[in-house]
Amino acid sequence: SDFRYYLLKSLLKKKKKTKKMFSTLQCRTIHHSVSLMDDESWDSSSVEWEQRCLLGNEIVSFSTSASSEKSEFLDSFPVKFNLSKLRSCLKCLKVTGLFIFGVVCSILFSTYPDHGKSWQMLAVSPLESYSVNLTEIGDSALLKLELAGSLIAGVVDRPQAEGYIVVEVTQSEDPSSRRRHPQQQCFFSFTNCTKPVSCCRETISINIQAFLQKNQVIPLSMTHQYLHADIETQVMIASVILVGVYGLIIFEIVHRTLAAMLGSLAALAALAVIGDRPSLVRVVEWIDYETLALLFGMMILVAIFSETGFFDYCAVKAYWLSRGRVWAMIIILCLIAAILSAFLDNVTTMLLFTPVTIRLCEVLNLDPRHVLIAEVIFTNIGGAATAVGDPPNVIIVSNQELRKMGMDFAGFTAHMFIGICLVLFVSFPFLRLLYWNKKLYNKEPSEIVELKHEIHVWKLTAQRINPASREETAVKCLLMQKVLTLEFLLKKKLKTFQRQISQEDKNWETNIQELQKKHRIADKILLIKCLTVLGFVIFMFFLNSFVPGIHLDLGWIAILGAIWLLVLADIHDFEIILHRVEWATLLFFAALFVLMEALAHLHLIEYIGEQTALLIKMVPEDQRLTAAIILVIWISALASSLIDNIPFTATMIPVLLNLSQDPEVSLPVKPLIFSLAIGACLGGNGTLIGASANVVCAGIAEQHGYGFSFMEFFRLGFPMMLVSCTIGMCYLLVAHVALGWNS
């Protein structure tokens, strides 16, 4: 840059010597060109002007335009230097700030040790209860009580006929007065339970009693731990951490994987400060390895599958089915993705569909990002239609208490299927409305690119002319008129091109023949092997959902299928396959699982559920069911857009069960559960990290060079989430409030 600066400065000194000759020639040229404008059109006059002034253009091209470029560079040099210096300063501040933040969180996490939990084994029976007094409270703000035992999974708030255990926690100011304040009274019939109890520097008494049909002894283990922050403070800390993570992702300050890792570190440091530091073994247990195994196994299968040329073949077939119409093809892809995700896991659907869509868009010269976003949105919508399509639905149908209340597989699927069909019926036209002005094509024709470049050059030339004289002013006017003429021509060409890509391709049959010659099956033997293994894996996915005798999770099925295909394909260069695995996506999910579990330990999800229940209780009884459906849907949708819908659903089910069994509320449980299912499943479309399928699709697209940002997904996904949740809410209101389908 210094060399260019001094070179330009020396060249500028020569400008004064040739200025008189250039100005004389320029005046003659302008005078002649202005006279031509009165008689002839711009095109003819410009051609003649260029012919007559060829010598002048040759001279001016070296001196006038070059010197103007140099002077413009020298004028803008301080601005560019300041901007680059500002960017470097901001980058330095970002790196320094994040590094300091990481160091502080690491110091906090290492400073506060794991105090451990005071635990003891005990035995309770109908004839004998267990009582203990806790006096060493100190300056603790919260008592964390955990009860574990070999009991039935479930939670209720009232006695059951088969037996239950009551845990009563009370506080008293001193042993002599025994003025007792009931703090918690719960009926337990589950394996593990954690209950927070507020500490007021008083003696806390815990009484555990069993009510069983037979006189048997129940072994239990009870642990208690003192925390240094109350519920409100922990929720505030968790909210700040969540907002910070979203800020890093939305503004793309760092990669989303690093943002999730920083958020996990901050949440672990917060747990250590309040006195609930988890051990490394416990943090590792928070990671959902079944999901990671499913992703890893399917990524291996897809990586080998791509070697066969099958994705190119599917792309050509999709183009043939759409008969050359872009929107027909997009609708077909979205509909197939929605149908498959209703029976497969939506993550598996996107793992299979994303490579096909990217190859199809490359063949048809389209922008894959908008098509992929549309596909993943409809994948999340379609997954909500059945009990096995989305993890929240699986959690709901698997709950024992809900099954006892009649929430079976067939009834749940039938009810959700009707509502999701209505959502799909409205979502397709709304998607077309959202994409009305979107640029779906990826690359423009060469003539349009050249025309844009020509307009840019003419504009720069006009801007470089300093209108110090009448002749220079006339030349600048002529150049600007040339620019206007070219811009008008560009608009006509763009309109023609957009009409061509939006209407049916007249030569689509010829294009099909050319595409079929270029994109064929590369290895038919490997394709047969891949189709056999993948078909068996998908069949096992279906079988696992409907046959309880198969003791293989989805992760195990995917891993076993990957091993089988690696053996059959006889892969020697193993590193090429591993390079195609989305390691950043896997690490993001691992960090996200830790982050969400840490936020759950900070009582953020539980706080959301409790506040939802309080809002429902505040509504008058005659309008309570309507308000409950609306509140549960929208709170679930918004929460699932921000946090993982799996822990949120698992937390909200007991809250809604207790709410429905509360005699003061008297609400049927089914409308609340269906509202939770629709909100949790459809809410994943709100943000990029709202659903696992979104992250998987973004990771694969980024590996292929078509990554889309948080805001690009948000501009399309959030309006779709609002519309789909509105349709689902209207369906539930009609079904349960107007028609009374509550049994």
Automatic annotation (TrEMBL):
TM annotation in the entry: 92-112, 231-251, 258-274, 294-314, 326-344, 412-435, 526-548, 554-571, 583-605, 625-643, 716-739
GO biological process: melanin biosynthetic process; melanocyte differentiation; transmembrane transport
Primary localisation category: membrane
Keywords: Membrane, Transmembrane, Transmembrane helix, Transport
Pfam family, one: CitMHS
GO terms for cellular component: melanosome membrane
Signal sequence, renumbered to the chain: none
Compartments reported by the entry: Membrane
Domain named Citrate transporter-like: residues: 246-679
Membrane disposition: Multi-pass membrane protein
PANTHER family to which the protein is assigned, alphabetical: P PROTEIN
Name of protein: OCA2 melanosomal transmembrane protein
